[in-house]
Task: structure prediction
Amino acid sequence: MSLSLRWPRTLASQLSLIFLVSLVLAHGLSFSLQFYERYESAKSTMLGNLESDVSTSVAILDRLPPAERAAWLPRLERQNYRYLLGDGEAGVPIDPKRVPIAVRSIDDAIGQDYAVTYTNVPGPKPHFQGHLKLADGAPVVIDVFPAAIPYALWLPVVLLLQLGLLIGCTWLAVRVAIRPLTRLAQAVETLDPNVHAAHLDESGPTEVAYAAAAFNSMQDRIAVYLKERMQILGAISHDLQTPITRMKLRAEFMDDCIEKDKLWSDLSEMEHLVREGVAYARSVHGSTETSHRIDLDSFLDSLVFDYQDMGKQVELSGKNAAVIETRPHALRRVLVNLVDNALKFAGAAELVVGSTADGQLSVKVLDRGPGIAEAELAEVMKPFYRVESSRNRSTGGTGLGLAIAQQLALAIGGSLVLSNRDGGGLCAELRL
Amino acid sequence: MEHVDHILIVDDDREIRELVGNYLKKNGLRTTVVADGRQMRAFLDTTPVDLIVLDIMMPGDDGLLLCREIRAGKHKATPILMLTARNDETDRIIGLEMGADDYLTKPFAARELLARINAVLRRTRMLPPNLVVTETGRLLGFGRWKLDTSARHLLDQDGTMVALSGAEYRLLRVFLDHPQRVLNRDQLLNLTQGRDADLFDRSIDLLVSRLRQRLLDDAREPAYIKTVRSEGYVFSYPVEILGAQS
Result:
């Protein structure tokens, strides 16, 4: 397994990484400098003390009568070194390349008066010993335990606390910087010009407030454009409906002939197109319809009965007993468009209620018509797209039925999937 | 002398109102056409009519306002048929809520208008309702159910919408308009024939059983729609007008 260090992908982790690494480095650097400086000064003080102390102590031992020397030893003992009478422990000579500093200090202090030899004593607590002989020939050992510079026990705790503080501050700073961005991204993602969406909060740091204000005004502009477009469409359709009404009424005064029938069907086609066009624009624009809790079984039953009462072959199978929250007119329109399509191409439709593998509610509208070529399945949902067999005017499609159904399915939080059935025919599945 | 139904047509488009007027005249009705609310009021002050055809989209006082005005005045029993320009559910709901008896979406065929006019006239003449639903009372309550007469669906105790097919709604509405009254199959068939008169061919018995199912009514021990042997059916539950939607 290779451990590859990759540049993190999220802005939050990138910023955190930069902040944290630079802060820890800067902090570590200043800490090391301070530590080194303290170490140097402590060392020179300590060695200075060692020099004068060792020369004094050895002089005292030298002048004391041999019988009193042992009693003085504890008084001369210091934290890092002590004096012993005798030859000391066996050791190895000190490597001349790695002579401890303390050796030099001792040499400086007493080297002129006494011949001192040094040995290292390895072991669990390595130390070194300086062997010398006093004026009366008695051996004395200076036993030195080199120790690190003493530091307070709370130091690591403080260091850890500082590290924690750094991490905390970094996290806070990154969060403050990232949050408005996340909020903006969410707002853009959920931007639905049809619903009058809530404006972004324009408070906060200047840059954030500016971005929020820009977003809000963009949202307003989109809403205005859409509204304008809808008004234009609405006006056109309304103004078309009046002349179509007049023409239809006039046609009814004509004597029965082929021309009258043709005029009539042309007018009906025009009327249908105007109506579907407005319906499509409305479905894109969303609906002002409020959602309602509905009993799905009775909803589908009533839809199917309405068709059956008109002598159409529409059957319903499956029960769900679900109560769903939805916009009933939009849902009805989706299903009516799908059933109308099935009736147009196959003469009969079958509705099947069930649920998908992931627990979604599914209403399938099935037919045994010609189906749709696989390549065209996605295309037919586009407005004004008609499959080849439907271009034939006799079927009289506007190419909007499926587009409306898909738009409305999205608007009510569902999805529409078309597929060809085994054995021929189309399956239009609405998932909620 | 035989009574000829007098239809008042209110539409701001001169051609449409004249074409409609002529068509209806040709089919044996008496018609008067006016262009706006002012003319309508002036005419109604002197002459009562049998039915008013009212366009919704008109400059000045629109059809909804006029409809409400008629329902509040001395002609409140006169049936009204609305013409709406948009094929929008909300228009229909508002129109019916304002007290119209039926509606037709423009562009419409004159023969369909004629059929609707005849159906509305027949409905209101044949059996005047015991219960008159007004603009303010669009919810009818009975037992555990409420019927929303403008959106045309049932609401159960929890407010969950239970949909009705067109025929089911019309049948239930006939029952609710005539509670405690035994209705025979012919009456029910005639009163139920509304919008899709020529297409509606289900038998009343089938429709009643469907409606009972919808109301969760036990057919052997029905609480709402009782069978009266060899006569017909009666809606035996008390019905109350609940007012605007809660």
The first helix of chain B runs from residue 14 to 26. Chain B is about 35% helix and 20% strand.
